[in-house]
Automatic annotation (TrEMBL):
One cellular component (GO) term of this entry: cytoplasm
Membrane topology listed for this record: Peripheral membrane protein
Recorded superkingdom: Bacteria
Record localization: Cell projection, Ruffle membrane; Cytoplasm; Membrane
GO molecular function terms attached to this record: hydrolase activity
SUPFAM superfamilies reported for this sequence: Thioesterase/thiol ester dehydrase-isomerase
EC number: 3.1.2.2
Primary location recorded for the protein, binned into one broad class: membrane
Family membership noted in the UniProt record: Belongs to the THEM4/THEM5 thioesterase family.
Residue stretches making up the Thioesterase domain: 115-170
Pfam annotation, one family: 4HBT
Protein's name in the database: Acyl-coenzyme A thioesterase THEM4
Length: 206
């Protein structure tokens, strides 16, 4: 795991750029402007893309330690504030559990008016993984099993939760769900996380 020392002000500016890009992606998905305006905006975006490529990294921002002392991963596709692909999810960890409030956007559409099943899977994969890590068993997803109970709406505040259930050697198990605020489950997940041998010794208890 690489730790980088980047000034907080630059990281904050990067996160603002990512948020502006999310707003842009939402606007692109929903725009109804005329064709000539689409072409004009596309040309402006191409120029902006080249400006950002003037100095570029090979990989997104890695794990680092935030000023509050917590491990963070600004480049992550689910929680990374500096990654425009990320929602980004803010995950609260408590003992064996992980919890995040999530409001999907039209950008996440799979079936008409509903969230793509792969997007739900991505969120649950991450939540389960963080629950396993919270319990002291960080690992790579080995197997993820999902049960889609009801369509997942976008534009509605939802709650994603997960809990570590057991561990055996390098393997750990976690369960989770995306639910309406009243607790009605929409998608349930179970996962097996395997700590790669390369990680052994890097975490307490391994
Ligand atoms: C360090 C700090 C990190 C902080 C993390 C913050 C949390 C972030 C949260 C992010 C969350 C998002 C995370 C992501 O998105 S992770 C990205 C998605 N996942 C991957 O890319 C994983 C790719 N696969 C691998 O790297 C390897 O195959 C792994 C590491 C999984 C196992 O390769 P390894 O060579 O180590 O395996 P082994 O053959 O010695 O077997 C060992 C044991 O494991 C059992 N097994 C093996 N494979 C599977 C399987 N597929 N399902 C169930 N069980 C499996 C096997 O039976 C055996 O059990 P036993 O016979 O001993 O009983």
């Amino acid at each position: 795991m690489t730790m980088e020392l980047t000034p907080e002000s630059r990281l904050a500016a990067h996160c603002e750029l990512a948020q502006q890009t999310r707003d842009l992606m939402d606007a692109v998905a929903l725009t109804e402007v005329k064709e000539d305006e689409l072409l004009a905006v596309t040309a402006e975006l191409a120029a902006l893309t080249e400006r950002l490529r003037a100095a570029s990294r090979a990989t997104p921002l890695p794990f680092d330690i935030s000023p509050d002392g917590n491990l963070r991963h600004l480049g992550n596709a689910v929680i990374g504030g500096a990654n425009p692909m990320a929602l980004p999810l803010v995950v609260e960890m408590d003992g064996l559990t992980a919890r995040a409030e999530v409001t999907f956007r039209p950008l996440h559409e799979g079936p008409p008016n509903g969230v793509h099943g792969g997007i739900s899977a991505m969120v649950l994969d991450h939540l389960l993984g963080q629950a396993a890590a919270a319990a002291g068993f960080p690992g790579m997803t080995g197997t993820l099993t999902l049960r889609y109970l009801r369509p997942v709406p976008y534009g509605t505040p939802l709650v994603a939760t997960a809990e570590h259930t057991r561990a055996e050697g390098r393997k750990s198990w976690a369960d989770g769900r995306i639910a309406l605020p009243d607790g009605t489950p929409l998608v349930e997940a179970s996962g097996v996380f395997v700590m790669p041998t390369a990680w052994l010794g890097r975490h307490p208890g391994t």
